[in-house]
Amino acid sequence: MRFLRSLVAFALGSLVLIGGTPARAADPIKVGMVIPLTGSIAESGKYGIQGAKLAIEEVNKAGGVLGRPLELVIEDDQSANPTTILAFNKLVGDPNIVAFLGPTRSTQIQAMSPAVQKAGKPVMIGGTDPKLTLAGNPWLFRFRPNDSYTVRVMSDFGSNVLGKKKWAVIHATDAFGTSASTLFIEALKKQGITPVMTEGQPNNSPDYTAVALKVKQSGADVMATFITYEQDLAIFAKQLQQLGVNVVWVGSPSITTTTARNLAGPALHGTYAIADFHVAANPEAKAFSAKYRESYKSSPDFFASWPYDAVHVIAKAIEAAKSVEPQKLREALLAVKGYRGVEGTYNFDKNGDGLHGYNILKNDKGDIVVEKRIDFDD
Amino acid sequence: MGIFFQLIFTGLGVGSIYALIALGFVLIYRATNVVNFAQGDFAMLGAFAMVVITIDLGLPYWIGIILTLLVLPLVGVLFNLGVYFPLRNRGYLPVIISTLGASIFLENGMLAAYGPRPQSLPPVFASQGITLGPVFLDSQYLVILATTIAMVALQYVFFERTLLGKKMQATSQDKEMASLLGIPVALMIMLTFAYSATLGGLAGILVAPIIFVSVGMGAVIALKAFAATIIGGFGDVKGAIVGGLALGLIETLGAAYVSVPFKDGFAFLLLFIFLLVRPQGLYGERISEKA
């Protein structure tokens, strides 16, 4: 018994010793990453990790942060909401992780938001539902323009630049699609326009005939879409073409991804899309794309670009704060102004939104070209 | 009116896809008394086999179809040996869980082997389809409809007119009696699995040009096909066909005339009503048939 007690005492003592050891200069600063490696959107996870790793390498090659190397700790969120929370909480268990990269899908971020607030450490996100940063969670920092800009740029481009006023609005019935389309309709209202039709379709549908026919019947001359999955987009695009529906199409970012273009082929030719990222949108994006292609033999898209920017901004913020203490890091992140990333120029506002504008792209016979950049001040 | 016919056509096309998968559900249920939850994954495997053969290896389309239809029976036999056979005397629950496990294994195995990027497969005919007045007939849906009709006819002739088919049917109706009569029950069940896998693979080949080839493609259709099977009744091949077509039509017409967001809801509402009012389905078997 006495032996056991001394053993416990010894064990506890050594724990205290280990815990009390101050971080050595060479100890890495860890950044956690909650990302889908399996499940329905596993593909995007692969790109996200590649983008983040490229930035980590660059930061470490330049001497690291506060003289310490950055290290990425990856946890699979399995493309689903409950498992996203589990993955995040698992990473939170590691006290050496100072900041996190979160998912690109709004619904997953919404699910993990309470856990983020409880953890009290900065989480970089790529979901574009505006509510995410407006719900009073001070720890979310967005690295893509949110949907309020999506919709302002899309409606501005369609109604004013192209001069089309009869809008059809098609959206997925998930968190992203529903919120984006609601905001889009509000943005149209501000221009004095009511869409001639609005329709939502569930994800993973094998058929879009009903929706395509409704667009045709509505007499719309321009269509906005907020569809989450590329398969759904491609099926819809093909059926529109087959059923002879001719409208100018302005889509949300997923319409320009390599996968969407490969799947839909000519059915997406001539469509417009707003996109936060394009390989040739600015000098930073060009340099990043060249490096990415060299490393991974494929072109990057937004799944890879925002984690790349996020890692650089975290590094910059830690340097500025001279600390990894969460509150100081948060203030340093909010103080980032005029940082030229590959997604655009970051000016963080009080909500944690870094970007306030979009590129407008055109699918020119399968090639994506930059048509315009629209930025807002507020 | 043109729109109505367009919807009917598409509904029947989508319904035939459900029917082809549902047919596999029914066959295996009749032979083994369990639902094979990996039936949709046979479709996924068939579609991926086509991608490997025709796109990666660059072989002609028709060779791809032949090779795929030769590989899938082997998959069915292996599935029978690995997933069903060891558990055949343990009641239905272990086997159902085993098929669920197989489904997860196949999907994630394919994900590991082929990556998560969805692939596209060209349609059987180069032409997109024909326009008949206001109705556009997608060539791929025409192929699917024709194949479904052909498979139903073939299946009818096989089960009703050939000795092997009758042996398989006898096995499905009463295993003990069948084995007393000298029918090799285990072999018959293995053949059923081989055939169901082939049927699933065929559905996968046909549906791939429309919904694309991805790891989750089978699960999406199989869920609806499962509902179709319950609506039609697990005991009868007719049920699978009628259930599948009915579901495709209701979904498409419901989306067009009632509500698009509740498209999936219609399928499951119908399922719910059937489970409540007529749990044995449209063509439910009489109790006496399976004494």
SS-based class of chain B: mainly alpha
User: Low-confidence segments of chain A, ≥5 residues, pLDDT <50?
Assistant: 15-21
Assign a percent range to the helix content of chain B.
over 70%
Strand order of the largest sheet of chain A: 7-6-8-9-10-13-14
Q: What gap, in angstroms, lies between the N and C termini of chain A?
A: 69 Å
Structure summary, number of beta strands of chain A: 14
What is the count of helical runs of chain A? Answer: 13
Topology, number of strands of chain B? 2
Major pleated sheet of chain B: 2 strands, antiparallel
Oligomer state of the chains in this structure: heterodimer
Report the order of strands and helices of chain A.
HEHEHEHEHEHEHEHEHEHEHHHEEEE
How are the strands of the biggest sheet of chain B laid out side by side? 1-2
Q: In this structure, how is the largest beta sheet of chain A organized? A: 7 strands, mixed
The structure class of chain A reads alpha/beta
Beta-strand content estimate of chain B: under 5%
Number of helices of chain B: 11
State Rg of chain B.
Answer: 19 Å
Shape of chain B: globular
Radius of gyration of chain A, CA atoms, in whole angstroms = 22 Å
Explain the layout of strands and helices.
The complex is a heterodimer of chains A (378) and B (291).
Chain A: H1 2-20, E1 29-35, H2 42-61, E2 70-76, H3 81-92, E3 97-101, H4 106-119, E4 123-125, H5 131-134, E5 140-142, H6 147-161, E6 167-172, H7 175-190, E7 197-201, H8 209-218, E8 222-226, H9 230-242, E9 248-251, H10 258-264, E10 272-275, H11 283-296, H12 302-321, H13 326-334, E11 337-340, E12 345-347, E13 357-364, E14 367-375
Parallel strand pairs in A: 1-2, 1-3, 3-4, 4-5, 6-7, 6-8, 8-9, 9-10
Antiparallel strand pairs in A: 10-13, 11-12, 13-14
Chain B: H1 2-32, H2 39-56, H3 61-84, H4 92-114, E1 129-132, E2 135-138, H5 139-161, H6 163-173, H7 175-180, H8 185-211, H9 217-232, H10 237-257, H11 263-277
Antiparallel strand pairs in B: 1-2
Helix pairs in contact in B: 1-5, 1-6, 1-8, 1-9, 1-10, 2-3, 2-4, 2-8, 2-9, 3-8, 5-6, 5-8, 6-8, 9-10, 9-11, 10-11
